[in-house]
Every structure is written in structure tokens, then in C-alpha cells.
Amino acid sequence: MARSLLRQLEQIRRAATYDDQVAGVNDGPTAEPSLSGSLEHDTNILRTIIRQMKGTQDWFTDLGKYYDPTQTDGSNTPLKQLSFDNIKGNTLDAKTIILAVTADNNGVGYDVTTGASGVLIATTTRYATSDNRTGLPIFASTAGSYVDENGADNVCRVDVVNMATDSEIEFGGYTIYAKLHDSVDFGATGSGTNVYARFYSNGAVTTLPAGISKVGFVYPYRKRLSDVQEYEWLRTDFINSWEGDVELIEDISNLWAFTGASNNDADPAPWTSTGAGYLLTSNPSNLKSAIDLLNNGIGSLPSTGTNYLNGNTTVSESLIDLDSALDAVADQIAAGIGEKYVESVTTLITKNIAHNLPYSITYTSSVDAGREGKNMDVFVDGQLLAADTTVSGVGMADRDYGETSSSSVTFRFDIQVGRNITYVVRQ
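-> C-alpha cells emitted (427 positions)
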């Protein structure tokens, strides 16, 4: 008896072989043989099954650690031990997520009228209940009891889209949104058939203003993570939240308005001035290219003004300044060059009697002291004459001729037949 008991203790204490690679361990006859079974065989079977469950090369290797953002050392070092206890409650079917669902009545929108208080949306999605929290988060119901009744706006809120503008509806300085109500309270069927989207603004029930005929909705739908399709997850991940759908639409609408584009614009290059000589002659297909062409074509103004152009002014202002300067320069050039006329005297020109200029010549008499005769030079046989200091020839005849009028002069000496008079008119 003593020898037999010792042998049993040795057998229970250890097995003669340690095998965690038992072939066919998942077959009944191998795992639980009806004949020739032993504790050693059972131990090896357990070792093999443990190795399979752990997914390691052998049954005793540590599963290691994983990264938990709530238990860090300031870096991305894995610190949390992998175990069944840590996995418990963290599987995909233990978590839910709010997804965005678009309801636009097959693209045509739901009909509404001025003063409408809500819209009935047809959907087979169930209402979320306390025993099954997946489905539609209901904000209010008198007919049933639902898990999200009187819930927070960030759970039950529904974005309302004006189908005519693809943007949210604003009235009185507030955005009009909706919340999901039990449709039974509004004479409909209820969970699994339809839901009522009731309009709100600034936290209170409201109605639609005038001018809106069709609306669409983006409403929340709670699903288990294990039930979420890949495309659904990516949609919410990229937009960052289910409320972001309408915000994205509004941002796109603002971009259309800013750039002059429109929804379904068939012309990607709506530039009208693309002919020869215009900066956009290449008809660029995007706004950046067009702006680059304008920048390169117009250039930049100097930081400080020189001569006629001033720094830090617009191109239009600079062109006006340049035009004014050119006009002044043109006047000065015209005043300096003048037009030349030659008169051959055929009849005696008597002194102190006004002489009408030939060829319908006209000029501007000068009244500026010290600048008499500045607008017209008069030569007799090549000798330049000096104009009187008095205006229009009135008063003392103190020089060679007076500027009598815009079309005549008065000589202070007789001019005989056969002599030549040259007039150079500047203005």
C-alpha cells in the first residue's frame, strides 16, 4: 500500500512528458479517450488548449501588454497586461455609437408649409428602449417609455436642412433644429414604422418661417459597434460627428457663394474675360491658378511713392494717379511745342488797330505778370516780338504788340506789304 500510494503521488505531482502540441486535441477521441487515458495525457491536452487560446508558441508564454490611453508613462509604451478580466466589458458588442442617418425622401425632400411644427419620417428602425438601447433616441413620448426620453440635445438633436439651399435654417438669430418624438403622439404608428421630427429653436418648440417648402433631416441612430458596417464607421470618423454632416453642407454652400459657383455647376472655369490681352486668357480651372495669374500680371506696388505713384495704394487708385500725371505732362508738352502758322502780308497792317489772325487761329491770352505772350509767339521776318504788359492790348502800349482777343493782336508799328509774320500757338 505504501509503495502504491507513493507512485500515485509521483504521478499526480508531475507528468513524465510535457507536450503542448498534441495533435488532434480538438477531436473528442483524442481529448477524452475512452481507453488508456491518464492524468499525464489530460495535462498535455490542457496545455495544448491553453496554447491555442493564448495564441502563443507554447502554453506558458506571457501574453504581454497593450497600450491603454488611461494608463501611460508619457509615451506610447504598452503598460496594461492583457487578460480575460481586462477584455471583459470591452468587446465591440458591449459598446454603442451614434451614427448619422440622412432622410431626404429620396432626394426630393419632405413638403412643409409656413408654421409647420414637424415632419413624420418613415423608418423601420426601432426606438431605443431600456432593455435594448439600439435604435432611435426618442426625446419625448406619452404613449411609451424609451431610454432617451428627456435626454440631452447632443443625443436627440436632429439637423434640419432647407433643400432649396442645402443649408441649415436660421430665423430670429437662432438655428432651427428638430428632436425625435414618438410618432404615436401625432397620430402615426410608432416604433418600427415612423418617427416624428419636431422643430425646436433656442431650446423651445417652434414652427417654420415663411419661404421654406421642402426640408431634409440628418438624425441620430444608435448601433452596437459590432453591428456597424465599415462604410458607416468611416463616414462618422471622417466628418468627426453626426452633426457635422449639415455643417459640412453649409460650409460648401458658403464656398459656392464666395467663389461664385453653384450646385452642380457644369462649367469648372467660369471666367468671362479670357480673350487675347486678358490675364486669364488661359481660362484656368481653379481659383488659385487664377489668383496667381492676376498677381503675376499686376505685380506689386512699391512701399514708398516715387514721382506720380504712391505706395500702399490700390491698383485702381494708382491708375487714376498715373492718368492725371500723364494728362498734365501732355498739356505741358503741347504748351512747349505749339503749332506754327506763317502769314504773308498782302495789305498794310496799321499800328494800334486790331489785326485778325489768319487761318482762324485762336489762342489763350496770358494775364500772368511776367509771363505775357506765353501761349503764343509772334515773329516778324524772323524777329521774335514781345507782348504788352497790359491785358488784351488795353492801356499803355509798352512793347511790340498787345493780345487783343483770342483771335486777334494789335501791333504797335506798321507792317508793310511783303513781310512775313510767323505765329507759334501753344494753347
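The chain has three domains: 1-88, 96-258, 339-425.
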